């Protein structure tokens, strides 16, 4: 099997005679052949017994390519209602290649091709999100690839016939910032495999796939679903993905892949995304798969995989920014129930996710083993410190969740251990801190043997996947922000797991070309060699000997005859870049404590922790609100909050100005009402209240069944609104910073819908006017008021407030350049 890879140019934006067009490359649809049952032949019909139907357990997990039948190019345009639709003014609506489309429809005034399209967003215009530059992050078995996004662009498409929407100068500035923003470090995708599934990205043999909530462009693809072309859009994942190769004796290669997917249910940056939000999701929440694979003589691929979790602590607290550049304060509600609210729901969600992962990896939907989850808390344990208080609430959260978890997963387990990483390093050295971490993680992951530590399997040449073992024990690592210490904790856990992974693949320590000893962690000889081991150790059990095949100290790990040093070196490099990417996404800075890992893999040391901490403080205070807005717009959430002057009427459904008289606004629509219910209420109001009056007004008696109209309603954003409200309430200032950003709490708003009638119908009979004069909609015991369609139009008057804003912006820009330059 060799993957049918996706075309590397996935779309093109063209202009012909002033018309903007989008050429989208989509997989060619394969029509399955119609099965014909043989006609019974009298007494011969029992000669051939009926074919046995495949049962669920017989269904195989198979890797497939959506490009196996090739691709087609579909021309799309934005219509007068801001919708994406197929352009049908040509003799054909599909082309074999982009070049064929150019030859048939050109010449064009403007043509730009892009490697990926992620979707579109309606604001004052329709903005198409495309990748302008990508690179391969990892190669996959059988030729597939994961691509890293290096640069994106929001390409604006005008809405034909739409009057320019009036917005305030502040919102106009935000629009410019939105258009200039590029989603780059920390975003990736694949058009060859489904990255929302666990490795090896195969179809499930049990029809269950864990939900990672990692699709960051799902809402952007919604407009393309109307015409069944959403499969032409790439799925944007946020997090980290990179593959590395390790060379073995005889020319063979061991492939390593680290892929981390960030959960989008709590997407805020640092001070707006700590702990739990209104949707019971935690900030900076990632799930990682660490994978090794190698090719066998029969062209199959053997693989081993370990899954590890990270995220902030699942409780509620507020961050108070001090007037000086010092560590922000953590403020907790005096009501413990408020602090712990939703923690049990969070852990229930995590364990359900892991239970589904176990079923996916095992191929057995009836399996009842696990999941077993241990939280490894790396916070300081000082009783009076912010982190010490937070750690105590973490204990309460796990204790509260344990009862609920036991009732849902009687064979599962949830617990919490503490490793005071910073104080251990300070008092005893990093070697003791590392050993303590290993004891807490490995004694849980492999209490008796390593059977529950890995998922092990084989990808066969026909694309089918078989598995010989599955992981059912997991660790979740955290510090205060799920950043620097967490990254180290994940690395050191993966470091030990690598030994078992290699054994499962049958790779010996002597197979590696790189046999160079690993450096010490802190530039000193290991404490076991200088008498340090005789010191009083910080935790009972620190002298515990870890079971084989694990190493007991970094001194052992440095030895190529005991540990695969080539793998350790490459793994540390992966976690260096992973730490920087996660920190960049969450705090707009590099990772702290990263020089430990850089020393292992031989990379150049970076800025000191003090410099990075100072940079983070600035970025989080001044830039978090802006960054939060940009991320929420990517997710298609809370547009009316981030652009309060934009008309909700326009954002729900733009209507050309010459057709305003054909449209109505429905105000006060109950949030749970569906579009069919809205349509039914309009027809019922017409038949009961308008139809009886038509003859006396000189109109024919036209029933509602003859009315042609479209109903559009704004999406139910209760969850995203709750998430925003909680995020904003998580930060408080001792003294408000000098910034134009407004992160005050929004007021909840009423739901609206737009009813647009056919223009030919309105030319014969003014249906909107008749409804306005005679009817009120009644939906679910609620009265819905009708109003004439309209929205504020942009004028040409000036606004001098921009001069003051420009001066303030210049001062802020100068400060920003200075702080960001500290790392250079």
From TrEMBL:
Coiled-coil blocks: none
Record keyword Glycosyltransferase present: no
Domain SAC, residue spans: 178-541
PROSITE patterns hit by this protein: SAC
InterPro entries, per database record: SAC_dom
GO molecular function terms listed in the Swiss-Prot or TrEMBL record: phosphatase activity
Keywords: Signal
Domain of life: Eukaryota
Signal peptide: 1-36
Record PANTHER family: PHOSPHOINOSITIDE PHOSPHATASE SAC9-RELATED, SAC DOMAIN-CONTAINING PROTEIN
Descriptive protein name: Synaptojanin (N-terminal domain)
Organism, as annotated: Trypanosoma theileri
Upper classification of the organism: Eukaryota, Discoba, Euglenozoa, Kinetoplastea, Metakinetoplastina
